[in-house]
């Protein structure tokens, strides 16, 4: 009868470095590391690793799909070794305890108990390793159980073993669902000690986790998601239909994101099982984990169906007027449907956005105000037949400025507008330094006493420093333009910040330097969604950047290119992508392409440059063809490009230096925002790694990315519709 010798104990502790428990999880890992030093004397470096013996104050960033070694230590007798790795937002602390030929699992267990506290951890796995004097097989389970002191009450797990690669025999010593701790026995036949180490402790010469540890990590993540779901409220109960609309959208998005995560995690677990050599049909003790994943998926499908029904009920109730989204800024004094109809005169330099996002915002705003019950005229220097037809279809009156010989387009705007019946508008609207001065002049010269709203779209203090091709001093330019923005607002009835980032800037300005009424207006996310937008497009995947690229440094074009180069290096061999940049200045496509090719290096990425276009069909088609939109701006007041991607249902990554990024962080469930909002720092290498990680994550599983995009669209359309934006504006200016 074979006997078990060379008993060792390996423990893998998993900690989640995201969400509300991040600080406590990192603290728990550091305490465990220090405890190993205090109680197990692991204070010496492990020379072969080249790693420090202490955890650095600042942890390195994790890499998706890979493991970054952080620290390693051992005791003087080399009987205890500890290593810390990071993968993505997970820390993995691994401990190996040996004590020579006389070591016993129970004795090693007692040593580990002096330092291990799993309260703040994602999960803990204890692996009881040993070699046998004969063939290792499932029939040895009872011998292993006796060495662990197991009794009949724990489910007779020793009857349910499995043989994996290298002739290793494996049992789950706690087959029942027993919280976040797993205990497995792994025995090796004579001569297979190296295979045992590769399975449970470390792959020689690599930082990666061994396959058994990888598998247990993925299963721990699924169990954690199950616990989160158990604590969640999916009832849909809310005080009002408007609140129910948002709550059900958020809950649906969270459940969809959770289901995607569980799918991806179980696929990773199956990959680890394949590396381990476990059979696809006979999983032995791992079959319970597969059953859990399948059951959890069915439960999530049921929950998502329920919350989608709740969302549809709430949407119908709000659309029929039985509920109203509340104003976040101004108390309503008169019901909206009882107020007189206000006439807005919005001053713009164009109707279709040939010059950028400000014009697109003005068009969306005019349309939303009409839908909210206002009468809207939009003054433009000139208009085309398609522009007039587009405005008429939306109920907006497009007013061309009066022409005269020798007048420029801008000078035309300063003449008295030809409004129907020479009526006087109730509100005049100007946009930043583009039309704010014209709106101010029109209001003061032709409509004295008429309230004026000055919209702010950018913050020169943030933007000008990244315009490297200017000859004048950036600091002087930033101060002058910021001061002009505020001077244009003086005398206005209200100052309107587009999005949360600009609102933070204007809110800190002294009240004497701005109008008494300060509003924040978040653009709406409830535009039409293409009927065929059900998943990623076919063919070779395309990544898209949109925007005027005269200021490529501001837009972060280099960050996008370097991130793509980093990302494609993480993909499987043979991967090829297309990159389309829409927004080249006149005669600038060639130089822009050369810059991109330099940043991309020798990577299989095909680059196409198109000029900027005001034709909505072209932009719509660009978005429909794309698998991912990038907006890695170093400074962005809001970021309408990213919003349009969300409305179109296209996956998008946006900079946290944008107003849109901050809004998504505020409104989306944390797990969805983390997949869409990416930090941009002054460290170009760090930017490339961070953006590369998330780009590769999207492109590796485009179906999941499109599901996340749909979740984000649902939540944002419920939380920030154009009806809310227009309603808050009407609330602010109505008598």
Automatic annotation (TrEMBL):
<feature type="compositionally biased region" description="Low complexity">
    <location>
        <begin position="517"/>
        <end position="528"/>
    </location>
</feature>
<dbReference type="InterPro" id="IPR046922">
    <property type="entry name" value="CATRA-N"/>
</dbReference>
<keyword id="KW-0808">Transferase</keyword>
<dbReference type="Pfam" id="PF20270">
    <property type="entry name" value="CATRA-C"/>
</dbReference>
<feature type="region of interest" description="Disordered">
    <location>
        <begin position="517"/>
        <end position="539"/>
    </location>
</feature>
<keyword id="KW-0328">Glycosyltransferase</keyword>
<dbReference type="Pfam" id="PF20269">
    <property type="entry name" value="CATRA-N"/>
</dbReference>
<feature type="domain" description="CASPASE and TPR Repeat-Associated C-terminal">
    <location>
        <begin position="249"/>
        <end position="306"/>
    </location>
</feature>
<dbReference type="Pfam" id="PF20706">
    <property type="entry name" value="GT4-conflict"/>
</dbReference>
<dbReference type="GO" id="GO:0016757">
    <property type="term" value="F:glycosyltransferase activity"/>
</dbReference>
<protein>
    <submittedName>
        <fullName>Glycosyltransferase involved in cell wall biosynthesis</fullName>
    </submittedName>
</protein>
<feature type="domain" description="CASPASE and TPR Repeat-Associated N-terminal">
    <location>
        <begin position="8"/>
        <end position="202"/>
    </location>
</feature>
<dbReference type="InterPro" id="IPR046923">
    <property type="entry name" value="CATRA-C"/>
</dbReference>
